[in-house]
Amino acid sequence: MDVKTIMVVGAGQMGSGIAQVCAVSGYDVYLHDISQTQIDKGLAHIEKLLSRQVEKGKMTDAEKAAALSRLIPSTNLQNAAKVDLVIEAVVENMDVKTKLFAELDQIAPPHTILATNTSSLPITEIAAATKRPEKVIGMHFMNPVPVMKLVEIIRGLATADEVYETIEAITRKLNKVPVEVNDFPGFISNRVLMPMINEAIYALYEGVATKEAIDEVMKLGMNHPMGPLTLADFIGLDTCLYIMETLHEGFGDDKYRPCPLLRKYVKAGWLGRKTGRGFYTYE
Ligand code: CAA
User: Taking every annotated instance into account, which residue ranges of this chain make up the domain 3-hydroxyacyl-CoA dehydrogenase C-terminal (predicted)?
Assistant: First the structure.
């Protein structure tokens, strides 16, 4: 299947990162959001990151200009009629996603693949909101998207082999490494990562060590680039809680119970870096 034009829905941190790597790899990209302010913010961030690449000599000015010219801002979902692939990166909420997929299914041409960047929600259930479940697939990028090599590719129950192969080839064209995973809560990445983060929060909650000590142990002892509490702040504590709840509900096993301290921080609005305060404070 030939993919030339992509629409990324959601111009937040993940969506703008995905749009950036797609544009740099030569795709024409509609960066869609309901908020023009969010699109402007996303495009400004992309511009800044590409300028940094030019300063470091990793990209020429002409390559940067070409990538930016391939990005088309969009606040009209009807633009999905012009694309071969949609990558959805909106809020992690099943109602929002199923409504969006049903709408995209109406607008996009029959050949268009509908991919979701969900970090833990079932692909099969999202696919069921459309009349083309064979063309729905999970394409889970990691944060920060321009840096992280992995894309988890998740087949729903009905995903066609041809669709999987197309997404795998696009992932390689984006200079990322595809890894195939089946449709279970949290896939592999968050099924393994989030319980570790949750356990680190329990260790803090129970007074086993300070937040700095917990992070230091995992950084220096296990060679993780960031300690788990720093990483939780980076991902967003609301996202961490949401994923833990998805695991807890999906498996029905108490080992995935979110730590009460995590719930408390989210209730306080201390969501990590994006709100200036989480386990740590940020400027
Ligand atoms: N966006 C884009 N690029 C970024 C970036 C960002 N937010 N932060 C850093 N970079 C780039 C830098 O520009 C630099 O690029 P060059 O090599 O081209 O110069 C490179 O990344 C390294 O950056 P730094 O030297 O400044 O910092 P670092 O070596 O400490 O790396 C990091 C920063 C890559 C974020 C590193 O700390 C890291 O890998 N952290 C862990 C990230 C992680 O685990 N992500 C997965 C989260 S889970 C997830 O995403 C899934 C989910 O569903 C929740």
Answer: 186-282
